[in-house]
Amino acid sequence: MARTSHWIAAAVFAAGLPAIAAEGPLAKDMFIRGAFNGWGTDNAMAWKGKGVYEADILISPGNHAFKVGSRDWTSEWVIDPNASVRVAPGTDYRLDTNPGPEDYLFVRQASMYRFSLDASDPKAPRLRITRLETPAVATVDPHKGHAVEQSLAFRTYDGMQETARFSVADAAAPLRSYAHSTTMQLRDPGPQHATYSESPGLPVARTGNLAFDALFALAVTEMKQDSVSEIRDGNYNGGAAIPCECFETGEKWHYVWTRDLSYAVDLGLAMLDPARVRNSLDFKLSAFRPGVVKATQVAGSADGLQIIQDTGSGGSWPASTDRVTWAFGAEKALRALPPAERKPFAARALAALKNTIENDRLAAFDPVDGLYMGEQSFLDWRDQSYAAWIVNDIASLASSKALSTNVGHYKALTLAASLAAEHGDAALAAKYQAWARALKRAINQRFWLPGAGMYSSLTAAHFDGAPMHKFDWLGQALAIVTGVADSARSRSILARYPHGPMGAPVIYPQQQGMPVYHNRAMWPFVTAYGLKAAALGGNASVADAAYDTLVRGAALNLSNMENLEWLSGQPLLLDEKNPSLIGPVINSRRQLWSVGGYLGMVIENVFGVSLEDGGIRVQPFITGKLRREAFGKSATVALNGLRMQGRQVDVNIELPPPSAGNGYYEVASVTLNGTAVKGLIRWDQMKERNAIGVKLGVLRPGQQALTRVGAHPYAEAPAVFAPHEPRITSLARATDGVRLGFAPGGKGAGVLYNVYRDGRLVAAKLAAGSWHDRAGSPSSCYAVEAQFAASDNRSHHSEPRCADGGIDIPVTDSRVTSSVPVRPPLPRFAAPAIHGWGKPGDSFTVKGIGIASGGDYSIQLRYHNAANQINLGISGGVKWMALKDATGRTVAQGVVQLPHARVEKADTPLVHSTPLRARLAPGVYTLALSDFYNMSYLDSNSSFSAAGGTGGPSNSVDIYGVRILSVYPGSAK
Hints:
The protein is α+β, with helices and mostly antiparallel strands.
């Protein structure tokens, strides 16, 4: 996963303080780590004597998750290892020294808190939190004495108004210094104002709108702040710094994450600092560790150079496969780099893409529906955007298919095909071009929902497979900007994706009972992709909504924030009646992809400068509203000092007079150094310094359809929320079909239910209760969906259930042989198991599997994987399963996934792997299991602190048996 907090739990290392003195009873430094400090090590517990350590922390309003943890997270202490606790200040709590869920501190207003840790008995430490008096801060007027000032006023959801002010001492200065203040309460404690300056060698905007020019300067400044010489994360290198002339991810995220970086580069960073972009992208490539024995089935070159899937759901890849988003950034970097630097990076990119593509094809591609499996891109806090039951069955998350991730695979294939052709490998180029065309067809066939006029965000998992009535703005926008969506579908998406009063949420509809983060949120980088899509599709209304969202967010927050609550636009919606729903749960300033999105908004959309192979294209998208409201007093707007490939480019746009109409202005003419040009402006056409003139023509109506929805931010209203997913309570085969019972998954009136058999809708708008499927068969599998009658918003599907009871073969069966012995049941588990199976060279075989009737079957392992928590790590089990008939012929083979599973204090549930699909004739079969690989085999993870890191690769699980079901495990039949 890219970034994650310990609310879901992975640690992110904030800029660490020096180690505290090795005093007192603790053997290592301990820190207060929480959402208020990016889960980093800013707040060390300082030794005070008599067994007591303290940390004083200024904390903003919110319901903050936190833990007491060591620098490398080898120690993490919580109050209760089984449940989160809301801490009451002034109360003593005994800490458990075992890992567990986060505890919470609710803060009404920004205050100083003292965390006191009594470690007199290191085996039973105690924690007390005390609110301290917070010193008053002197009021400062940052605008005093400035000659030019401008204010922007914004209406709020509750009928009030917030204002951002901008000023400069000298508006005529070649490089301005800005003061910027806001009336809105900021997310994190600190001054309500900021100052920043334009920089030599970086572009500046001159539009006649001081606020517009200032906010562009703010984004450039924050790009420079995110430009670092070293990075760090508590899970890597023992928390110590790693040298890298890279982009870090944000103020609270000091590492480089594959998807964050790649989207940021694609949106706007590539043309401003291509060398640092290349360094950062290269940091996200890795070969296999020295000494790793490559399994026979693993594809690609011997070194295994490939894109890194960051730590996350179920133990990372291939439960998540959106590492391919690296291609979005790489493509832009290759366009921006000068030829001498581009050539070696292009060769390395092709090698990495090839190995990634070939192994993703083995581990995550479904040949039946032509799609790639894996978690949604960036929406990686499972219960925020998946069904509630998915946390107990990460294999089902792994086998689902996501729109955004599949579009990422499409981008990887098209880029690899282009690079292969460039390097003279015509056969490889043709192969990847064919795969890309087929994937594009599959996306349009499987994800498109005609009734909704949009793509489904994701399909249900194995034993269901239906595309669900869930939608996300990133997936829709990426489909448009990559050309996966044709013009008709693009128009439909732009017109129908629901926008709130402050802009487009990243998912729709929202999930009940979940705090704000991916759920109930706007993310500026996603808004920026929506803007790109709107410009391509000519939808002025959607573009205007995006312009408004991005400007408002940066202006009122003094920064390009990580995310905002979608109905209020707030960086923190403080719901005191429901503190568990407060959010965004974490929110960082100068978030890299938000910065990239704002830069791209100005450079690529307003001024129209985009990188293409061999040069640039200039195609501004200035709407009637933007002309009137942002540039109403200007006849021209300019972007000066844009430097690309050793050339400086100044862009000057001549604006028509403002008009009352809506739409966007067509480009009447473009000149380069006074000479008219059309289409691509090639690098060899340019001088060392270039003036590009653009004259805008008539206002074209374009597309103006926009869907607006709304509700009060504190109300989980059916207008914008989905119902809870229902539960199948009973399933029974009968002589005349199959009978199933189902019940609501939560409270709520006006809910109807839809039944799916094998991924196809077979009954609609039922009341809760039961249903008789007279067409059901012994191999049928069912899922139920809830929908609000009033809004048609729908839930995720229920956990599927199948009519077939299946064949269960425990590891104690005489047909099972293994190189690892069977052991008696462990505590919390009711059955014997083969513990720790999966090291290279381990063998597992089941002989004499009798199949009486021919048909479609799915084969799964019953297992447990406790190598890490379900949201963390790089140690998801990834194995190769092969099924042979009596003649020794292989009839089915492929990767099966055994992701991390939950560990409870009592009665830990066993889980099933992803299924291997097989079409079998009656007969006797042999199943064999062997090694594949996971992300822990990569050299980049050799310093990882948990399983699969410093101790060597981890790809072992506990096997309890094999299950064979007479069902079809893939997409809808």
